Amino acid sequence: MSTGVVKPNGGPSTLGATGARAPAYRWRRFLHLLSRYGTLAGLAIMMVVFSIAAPKSFPTMSNAINILNQSALTALIAGGLTMALVVGEFDLSIGYAASLAGVLVTGLIVRQGLSIWLAILVVLGVGAVIGAVNGALVTKARVNAVIATLGIGTILIGISFGYTSGAPITEGVPEAFPRLSLGKLLGLPNPIWIMAGVLALLWVVLNRTDLGQRIQAVGGNPEAARLAGIPVDRVKIIAFVTTGVCAALTGILLASLLGSGTASAADSYLLDAFAAAFLGSATLRNGEFHILGTLIGVIIINTGFNGLSIFGADTFYQYVFKGGILVLAVALSTVARRYSQA
Amino acid sequence: MPSAEPRAPLVRVSGLAKQFAGARALEGIDLELRTGEVHGLVGANGAGKSTLIRCMAGLVTPDSGTIEVDGRKVIISAPRDATELGLAFIHQELNLVPHFDSVANMLLGRAKSTRLGLIDWRRTRRPALVVAERLGIEFPLDRRVDELSVAQRWMVSIGRALVGNARMIAMDEPTASLSDTESRRLFEVVRDLARSRVAVLYVSHRLDEVLELSDSISVLRDGRLTRRLTRGELNKSGLVREIVGRDLAAAEQSTVSAAVPGQTPPVLEVHRLRRGVVENVSFELRRGEVLGLGGLVGAGRTEVARLLCGADRPEAGTIRLDGVGVCFSTAADAVGHGIGLVPEERRSQGLILNRSVAFNINIADQRPLRYLPWLPLLHAGRARARAVELTERLGIKTSSVDQPVSALSGGNQQKVLIARWLTRERKVLVLDEPSRGVDIGARAEIHRIIRDLARGGTGVIAISSDAEELVALCDRVVVMAEGRVTGELEGANLTEEAVIALSYAHRRTDRSVAT
User: Fold this and answer.
1) Across the interface, do A209 and B378 touch by the CB < 8 Å criterion?
2) Are the beta carbons of A227 and B331 separated by less than 8 Å?
3) What is the arithmetic mean of pLDDT over B302-309?
4) Under an 8 A CB cutoff, do B363 and A209 touch?
5) Given Cys at both, which of A101, A277, B324, B514 links A248, Cβ 3.0 to 4.6 Å?
6) CA A156, CA B191: separation in Å to the nearest integer?
7) Are B483 and B304 in contact (CB under 8 A)?
8) What is the pLDDT of residues B360-383, one digit of tens each?
9) What single string gives the DSSP state of each residue in B17-30?
């Protein structure tokens, strides 16, 4: 990988020629390549297999758009999660935050009579507050992120159920609301545009702004970032806020898609988002979380789902697939980090 | 005389050698420890004391040489082996479990179980209680160790060694953070241990106590054992001479009490700074000057650096920057005022290892890289160009600025950290051990860069444990010992010997160094 003048100490490049080390080196090299390009190869293999097995239904333009459309919401929430992961933290509240956003946005429209746009704005604000609370707990109160966000997430479940009293909000949802996610622009469904726009924005923020560089620095080495003059706590809180806003947006779009606000509707996005982000971290980079990788991870997962449903697989296979891919993704990501120097 | 006793020594180390990355850490070490003996081990920073201890403890595998216990050759490849042989090691960090009580800590890993497989606390606790009595421990044994004082934790650590039937206990800088009274109490315990036929390997920078306690003393210098001395053979100045390897005649009148104020006004004034070990530290730094901060490990230099850079807040004292009093609550604050730190631990505190060289250089100040001053959008080309310019200027050897910084050598990594602070306006740059783990060539280059920086108007503070480096690099050196400034050296007075002598000038015995 490195063609530098300076070789990493003990680097295999100096030992590659000696017989005894060669197999071990080749194995490392293989793991390194697997961890960088394995996910992409897996996606390609999946596409080829599905195309051969279902030539009429899988490799079509409309199915491709379908996969992207199904990926859109997961990609939004996973893109937001990526921000928390890049800064070196965890957010387990995203699924519950999205669910709450769904019931809240419909509730505000139906019960409080807010206009659609105002309701959306308010709910995005709620997402930001949830993120800020998570961030404050993790940085100021120094609660472990897993515990803090799990606790907050559980509180959010409670609020969702309390707000809806257990029954979905379906009556009186204006027609314009479902149109948000069912409408099309230039032949592509709106969610795809929104996904593209938000992910592009997140990519730019992460890679082309002061803030993004600081987020990456804090995630890479918080102590070094602090001594370099970066306000670590503030940067972490901002990352959590971004995660919260993305989760809220996902919940709003899901409610629009369903035409109702249902408590716990978006809960299952949590695992999808984590699986996607970890698959993404094992894609092209050495176990680092990044937006493009997360998008690829989401597409892999949804291509898999799509294939399963084309073949009419039972629902339980979906769970097996989802669980399996999460574990595989984390394992690949770990391998990627370990063999990053190969 | 060693031959007087027919029995084999408890521990005999012969011909021990160890290299790290081609650099000699230890060579041809012969060391003998007898039952019931207190053996002092002294040497300057980097002389090899800790490597020797680590070899004996099974934490480092020596390249060659043997270790014998009771005359039998043994191989210690893990700490467990050492424990089984009855060798106990108490490191400065003490390695106790903070939220366990004293008894649980002493018994760690030795629980005896009942027939049901549960821990039989009564049977398990007994040996700890016996040991506590033997050591005369007076504090409550059921208190969590993180609520104990450092001195009490030392007692617990010694107790732990004794519960494990240790026949030799190595103690690394036991009195480093103890008060005088606490130290006295520890000495009593050490003598008692010796009387009960436990050998003690006593490692300390404090020569007075080593002289007071030890039956024999081994001196390490540059990885070799220069001398083994028996009780009464030495006084302190002789010992210092042995440690330095040269005569200290020159050092004796070298202390300059106060520096003559220079032409330029000071950029940084530190007055009676205090926190933790740091006691009433005062000095001035002039613009364009390289000021060295010398002393032994643990003298409080890094702590002073942390206070200057906003990592810690002083308990008392003032810091004035360009004549204006400042008080930093965060590192970001200090950086904003133009004080940068190149930290001691390059990899854990300085670098963002999985990122590129360019990323690591640019991270401290991104503002100039924006498309427009008010638009927080970074110009990738400008960022790269700045990194390229700095790598060329500092001679950082890398195939490309996009290479991960982890692939660079230590010297080049250090230059990356210096380059980081060249991206922004700065008044003061503090470098903690700037050439640690860096080869000689890179070291010379880093020194040149530091001096260029100073010539450019930055006030530079260089912290180093290496007297040679301080003399080569600095215009002026402030030496610290035990948290206090023991002297200031400049011009003809600035010699290696003087720096080392002042490093050992402990407050209790200031006199004995000078005479």
Assistant:
1) yes
2) yes
3) 90
4) no
5) A101
6) 63
7) no
8) 999 988 888 888 888 888 888 899
9) EEEETTEEEEEEEE
B410–A contact, CB cutoff 8 A: no
Question: Rounded to whole angstroms, how far apart are CA atoms B44 and A283?
Answer: 49
For A4, which of B351, B377, B407 is closest by C-beta distance? B407
- B359–A213 CB contact, under 8 Å: yes
The size of the A-B interface in CB pairs under 8 A is: 102
Q: Which of 333-362 (B) contact A at CB < 8 A?
A: 334-336, 340-341, 343, 348-355, 359, 362
Contact call for B334 and A226, based on CB within 8 A: no
CB contact under 8 A, B364 and A220: no
Strand segments (E) across B75-154: 87-90
Pairwise CB contact (< 8 Å): A4 & B406? no
Other beta carbons less than 10 A from residue A2's beta carbon: 18
Query: What pLDDT band is residue B136 in, cutting at 50, 70 and 90?
Result: confident
Report residue B10: phi and psi, to 5°: -60, -50
Tell me the pLDDT band of A113, cut-offs 50, 70 and 90.
Answer: confident
Q: CA–CA separation, B488 vs B468, rounded Å? A: 16
How far apart CA A229 and CA B334 sit, in angstroms, is: 8
pLDDT band, very low/low/confident/very high, at B7 (cuts 50, 70, 90): low
Q: Do B377 and A229 make contact, defined as CB atoms within 8 angstroms?
A: no
pLDDT, residue A23, reads 63
Asked if B331 lies within 8 A of A208 by C-beta distance, the reply is no
Which residues pair with residue A188 across a beta bridge?
A185
Q: DSSP 3-state assignment of A218?
A: helix
**Selection from B260, B309, B360 nearest residue B463 by Cα:** B309
User: Is residue A294 within a helix (H) or strand (E), and if so which, with residue range?
Assistant: helix A291-310
Alpha-carbon distance of A29 to A248, in angstroms, equals 41
Determine the distance in angstroms separating the CA of A287 from the nearest CA of chain B, rounded to an integer. Answer: 10
d(CA B247, CA B497): 8
List, as one string, the DSSP characters of B216-279.
Answer: EEEEEETTEEEEEEETTS--HHHHHHHHHTS--HHHHT--BSSPPP-SSPEEEEEEEEEETTEE
Token pair, residue B384, equals 């790269």
pLDDT tens profile A56-65: 888 888 899 9
Closest CB from B332, B353, B380 relative to A230 = B332
Distances (CA, A) of A145 to A88, A149, A225: 10, 6, 19
**Which of the four pLDDT bands, split at 50, 70 and 90, describes residue A5?**
very low
Residues B177 and B204: beta-carbon distance below 8 Å? no
Rounded distance, CA B491 to CA A156, Å? 69
Mutation site for A-interface testing, chosen from B333, B362, B372, B378 by largest number of A Cβ within 10 Å: B378
Q: Which two tokens stand for residue B30?
A: 């012969």
Name the CA radius of gyration of chain B, rounded: 25
pTM of the model: 0.74
SS3 track for B462-479: EECCCHHHHHHHCCEEEE
Question: Which position has the token pair 């957010």?
Answer: A91
ipTM passes above 0.85: no
Residue pLDDT, tens place only, A25-84: 777 777 777 777 888 888 899 899 989 988 888 888 889 999 999 999 999 999 999 999
CA distance A285 to A332: 11
Could you tell me which chain B residue has the CA closest to the CA of A214?
B363
Q: Is A74's Cβ below 8 Å from some Cβ in B? A: no
Q: Which of residues 217-276 of A touch B (CB under 8 A)?
A: 217, 220-221, 223-231
What was the pLDDT predicted at B418? 93
Which strands, in side-by-side order, build the sheet including B11-20?
Answer: B23-33, B11-20, B64-69, B72-74
Neighbours of B234 (CB within 10 A): 20
